[in-house]
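We modelled the chain as a single entity of 139 amino acids. Its sequence is:
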Amino acid sequence: MKFSTSVSSSRRKARKAHFGSHSEARRKLMSANLSKELQARYGVRSMPIRKDDEVMVTRGIFKTREGKVQAVYRKKFVVHVERITRDKANGASVPVGLPASSLTITKLKMDKDRKAALERKNRNADGKKGEDVTMSNVD
């Protein structure tokens, strides 16, 4: 059932918005889940992926492989991870494009903007970072 009248439920319009989106919108679309340890530490479930993050592949034929992000190819909606390549017929090695949704971030490359985003997105925002606050005020 549709709740918001300002948002279209048309598949055609949703696909046009997705594939016709600009680079900054694609950054947000290309988010990956954080590992369980990072989710517990920061109180954040997912983050937009970026170069120099360390990731683990969770789906596909490269499942369980780990590596550092070499490039985030927003135009094609794929991420290139180091050591995940395939050989072409002429012997050249090319990186395999992986969708960001099939990756899990295991280590974040931190800078001031990333730190601010984590603090803004933190669900345990009452100052207690990483602690279990769900049962804190039960009588």
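As a brief sanity check on the tokenised model: The beta strands are 31-34, 46-48, 54-57, 66-73, 78-87, 93-98, 103-107. The chain is about 25% helix and 30% strand.
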